[in-house]
Write a structure and sequence with these properties.
The protein is of the alpha/beta class. The chain is 38% helix and 16% strand. One of its GO terms (molecular function) is nitronate monooxygenase activity.
Length: 310
């Protein structure tokens, strides 16, 4: 199997990380990714409680005998960093601090014995997280599902690889072994996988989301802030979110309506209105499959492709 900085450092067999998708990646999904040989990350959202964190990490560790970590939105810690404190109590092996400057928190994570990984969307982001002392970076491209930047994965990955001595992972548009092989061949030490797992039964969230994922094509996404505004999510304006198009985006995307009007029109219970964040690789997700099977298949296909050049 593969050997990269990621596999050597964490003692895993597959250079894949389950993306810490807030509201989708809980302990079951993280545990199954870890059990399949990768690194499972739990998405810790602003509304999660310490009790929720404890239950999710216990579940993940019961399932997967290997490393487990958390992903946090760095910008949300400025007003209240108690969620980070709760995360560190569980001694994770990795904490992903993304979407903002991690400098105020890196030492605390290191003191707890964990690595710090930060997703970045520009070279300016790279300089910020390098100065903060992170252990590795994830070049997250515009193709990615959920909140992301505006530069494509391949252009960004090339720039980042040429501009840092830190280990670099890739994210955005990677849903098959072909995608993993491509970024490894370019010099990445591994990849984050999110959309490829969204139809797996281990994900958290409404059942209709899995059906929508399977039925979607790569052209069925939109980069928008309309769901943040409708749900009063205070994301910084530089990060929009890539989601599946639906009746809500068709009506409201691109319109300068107030958050109150959008909130009144929005309901997450309606399959035609509720948000389903997903990346452009959604067209490669054609069935509801266990997360472990997805991870193992990506790894096997990537190894077969790369072995042609050895």
């Amino acid at each position: 199997m593969f050997e990269t900085w990621l596999t050597r450092t964490l003692g895993i067999s597959v250079p894949l990380v389950g993306a810490p998708m807030g509201g989708r990646a809980g302990g079951v999904l993280a545990g199954e990714v870890t059990r399949a040989g990768g690194l499972g990350l739990i998405g810790a959202a602003r509304y999660n409680t310490p009790e929720w964190l404890e239950a999710e990490v216990r579940t993940a560790r019961d399932i997967g005998d290997g490393p487990v970590g958390f992903g946090l939105m760095t910008w949300s810690l400025a007003d209240d960093d108690s969620l980070l404190a709760a995360v560190l109590e569980h001694r994770p092996q990795v904490v992903a601090l993304s979407f903002g400057d991690p400098a105020p928190y890196v030492d605390r994570v290191h003191e707890a014995g964990a690595l710090v990984i930060s997703q970045i969307n520009t070279l300016d982001d790279l300089r910020v997280v390098e100065a903060a002392g992170v252990d590795a970076v994830v070049a997250q491209g515009h193709e990615a599902g959920g909140h992301t930047g505006r530069v494509g994965t391949l252009p960004l990955l090339q720039e980042v690889l040429e501009s840092t001595s830190l280990p670099v992972l890739a994210a955005g548009g990677i849903a098959t072994g072909r995608g993993l092989a491509a970024v490894l061949a370019a010099g990445a030490q591994g990849a984050f996988v999110g959309t490829a797992l969204l139809a797996s039964p281990e994900t958290v969230g409404p059942v209709y989301a899995r059906t929508k994922i399977v039925d979607a094509t790569s052209a069925d996404t939109v980069y928008t802030d309309v769901f943040d505004r409708a749900r009063h999510q205070p994301w910084p304006s530089r990060w929009g979110g890539r989601a599946l198009v639906n009746a809500f985006t068709e009506r409201w995307h691109g319109r300068d309506e107030s958050e109150d009007i959008l909130a009144e029109a929005y309901t997450g219970d309606d399959p035609d209105i509720g948000v389903v964040y997903a990346g452009q690789a959604v067209g490669s997700v054609r069935a509801e499959r266990p997360a472990g099977d997805v991870i193992r298949e990506i790894a096997v296909q990537a190894e077969a492709l790369l072995s042609r050049f050895r």
